[in-house]
Amino acid sequence: MAACVDVGNPLVSRKVCVIGAGMAGLAAARELRREGHAVTVLEQGGDVGGQWLYDPWTDDDAEDPLAAAAAEPVRVHSSMYASLRLLGPREVMGFSDFQFVPARKSRGGAGAGDNPGRDPRRFPGHREVYLYLRDFYRAAGLTDAVRFNTRVVRVAMAPPPCRGGPGDALKWLVRSMDAGLWKQCTDDQMAEAQCVEEVFDAVVVATGHYSQPKLPSIQGMGDWKRRQLHSHWYRVPDPFRDEVVVLVGCGDSGMDIALDLLAVAREVHLSAKSVEAAMTPAMSKMLARHANLHLHPQIERLCDDGRVVFADDVVVFAADTIMYCTGYSYSLPFLDTEGKVTVDDNRVGPLFEHTFPPSLAPSLSFVGIPRKVMVPWFFEAQGRWIAGVLSGRWTLPSEEEMMRSVEEFYRARELAGVPKAYTHDVEPHKMYELGEKYCDFPRTEDWKRELMAIVSRNTSDDMETFRDRDDDGSDHVRRCLQEWHALAEHQTQDEEDPAAAAQATVHSSL
Questions:
Q1: Which site among 92, 103, 180, 328 is 20 to 30 Å from 268 CA-CA?
Q2: Is 296 helix (H, G, I), strand (E, B) or coil?
């Protein structure tokens, strides 16, 4: 598949709607505006940040919490819990020209140490990421582009009278409404609600994929009378004090929430698909340190008297809560493409390079679909590619070529034994080459890739202490880290002078 080429034609400005003002949406909006497009960002929350905008409200008081979790879409977007900290260091989580340096100034001019709202740690908590994204939003000059408290309820191809221009280009009808009103409406009321309809030349979907809970199917779930919830609704450990809690799933969130609960719960039981695979050095150390933590295979069945029976016939008597740390599903309930883009077994497709649907490109695109990628770098690369294709700077392959590439990718994954649900888990070498291949966006620096490999190794070794380890690997990584911190001194995030922050850059050529 040939890479896109700069065709040298006069650039065209498009009217573009970006859905979502989280990390992916902000990255896309900045690149679109840089390319000269007229950008409108529709955000259902009251501020930027997406997932990183912590929402203490949950729906766990619903009469049927599992039904609330299964409803599409859920009414609460963020899945953040209060204690969550980054799994990666701030040095690798910054925008290419606006690095994630510890904030040194507040509105009053105080240093970060004097500002209790900021977190200078290398692996900061979720609020620091939100504040960083807010700083970026201001520094990038996007304050006039985002429309808050606006829920998109339908995106569909506009009828022919709305089209026009070269080749009678496809346009998109976007219907939105007040987000507060949307939360109160039933499906029947939605049709009668007061909505705003607008027509755009292009739509970029950047709504994330950590909001719609994915639930397993376990015998007895419907009959089990005690508390069941998905980790999407978890916020703080206090409601589980002195309880026996069973967590289904041993991924990063399952292990992290288990550590959060251990201080208050009487017992915490982790259920894994494979005990052998779950028994990493990190898990072994957690079990050795905490006598009230237990690891089990999958749950065989739930009994209406509170018993939990595991596949090895071990029984936990009188469990109080089952929490499903079983991940999330892609959810695009607002998108009507007449079947040209679907979500099937957690595969959004067909998408060329996880970004463009061949039959609707380039007027419809997606930023942030892939998982296990370095962010926001990957989002910037996608945003620049989309912006350049829309302006005419670069051309996409033909629809037939893109579709053939997608089908070849699907076949290769199937032959490799990768389930369809993991279609968007991107291989590292594919992640790093996307920007370079399609839009002249430089690869992320080699020392950052090496640093992330070290952090991944440390996480697998000890989930409780990896954030505090002083292990930066090779002399090359340590030298580049020193240079990064020295250059970062020239970047200011002073909220009183966002224009200066926009001019300050940290070079990406270390």
A1: 328
A2: strand
Whether pLDDT at 506 is above 70: no
* Tokens linked to 236: 């703080």
> Is 437 found in the same domain as 317?
no
Q: What 8-state DSSP symbol labels residue 466?
A: G
Note if the bond before 160 is cis, omega within 30 degrees.
no
Residue identified by tokens 């692996």 is 123
Band the pLDDT of 371: cuts 50, 70, 90. very high
Smallest CA-to-CA distance from 369 within 341, 347, 339, 391 is with 347
26 lies in the same domain as 153: yes
Lowest mean pLDDT among 111-115, 211-215, 355-359: 111-115
- Any residues with CB less than 8 A from the CB of 136 and at least 6 apart, and which? 26, 30, 95, 98
Record the pTM. 0.91
Task: Identify whether 274 is part of a domain.
Answer: yes
pLDDT on residue 432: 82
Whether the per-residue pLDDT at 319 is higher than 90: the answer is yes
CB atoms within 10 A of CB 274: 10
Are 322 and 334 members of one domain?
no
Domain with 183 in it: 15-55+148-211+329-444
Residues 21/146, Cβ–Cβ less than 8 Å: yes
Domain end marker among 395, 428, 444: 444
Neighbours of 375 (CB within 10 A): 17
Task: Check which CATH number belongs to the domain holding 220 and give it.
Answer: 3.50.50.60
Rounded CA-CA distance 196/201 in Å is 17
Predicted local confidence at residue 8, as pLDDT: 62
Cα 124–Cα 125–Cα 128 angle in degrees, nearest 5: 80
